[in-house]
UPF0201 protein ACFQHK_12945
Amino acid sequence: MSTVYSVDVTIRAPVAATEVTDRVVDAVEHVFPGVTVEEHPGEVRATTHSLESFSERLHEAEILDSARMTFLQTLSGDTFTFRLNKQAAYAGRLTFAVGDPAELGDIEVEVTVRDPDPETYVDHVAPPTEDGVPIDPADRRDER
């Protein structure tokens, strides 16, 4: 039986005067396929209710530990936040932004977890690893 998650994900990316809005939209959609995108003056906003595709990308890029650390460090109440490098996202790569925002700005993501608790959702999106391999409780049960 699979768990049903209730989350609200808000994504914002600035559009600099030197940028083409469609490229910023592409950057967001490369990282978060299927999001609902709205274009606003100087900014692109998107929403979704799932990070399944994003989680798959984290697994493929083998950056679960970095993602998990970022999510848990920014967790406040039922919400965690993170930033992604916009130029890397346009190229189809996941790179967490640290420090001051890049010259063209970063993709800012806010995740509010309604159900279950935020820690359980972080475990789902970016599970803990052992020697770089995700630890999945279901797999452990199957081995018994």
Notes: Confidence is low (pLDDT under 50) at residues 140-144. The radius of gyration is 16 Å.
